[in-house]
Amino acid sequence: SMDALWILLLLLLLLLPALLWTSSTFVFYFKKVFYVAWMMMLAVVAIPICFLKSGGRDIENMRVIRFLVRHVKYFLGLRFQVSGWEHLQTEGPYVIISNHQSSLDVLAMMEILPDRCTMVAKKELVYAGTVGIVSWLGGIVFINRKKTSDAKSVMTDAANTMLQDQIRLWVFPEGTRNQKGDLLPFKKGAFHLAVQAQAPIIPLVISSYSNFYLGKEKQFNSGTITLKILPKIPTKGLTTDDVSDLCDKSYQIMRSVFMEISPQLGQSNGPVCH
User: Fold this and answer.
1) CA distance 156 to 240
2) What is the pTM of this model?
């Protein structure tokens, strides 16, 4: 029966390239499963390295994570085109805000993640297996969104951490994943955070994934993702009263850039031929 098992395995291995070559639905599921499994695996590798390097939870562990994740894009056939690097050459703490489409955003994040930068995430992430442990080791700031409807108080601790440890925080102001081909209205937390820390906001726009990834149509092709880092928005001297305006202004800027760098959104006839 061992022989039969080997023959089955061999057949599956021979089938794999054929399926990858002929069935876009198979490619779609294969890439999705591979991505999740590989990230879990990388986390297993990262955990002991992070402990050896810094003995526990430390923002410096983000360097390890960044290094380990950088190559994953090649497996998925993705490339990044980055503009506006100069806007990240800012001393001291700042808040990066970006749009949020799917778990692939992690790849975009690791492509440009500055030193001493980690992210703000909902506390449920801690329970995501090995990835949860690595998130904790990387100093990710966990917030309890259920605890209070008041975005301001949720961000007070994060602002204090930011200033005490001189770190940068990455926030997804839409607050949830969104692949509708537009930006969802922003939640105010990120802007309270920036104002409380009197730290500038650096907007980052990630182009729509719809030119290579379509969930409904089960397509996950190779493609290029455009990342546009925008000029920083200062918050020095701003108070809570300015948060709404700051939020609206950031939304308008990011939304127009999103439309501009996602040309396929103007075409309603499905994916561009490849």
Assistant:
1) 12
2) 0.89
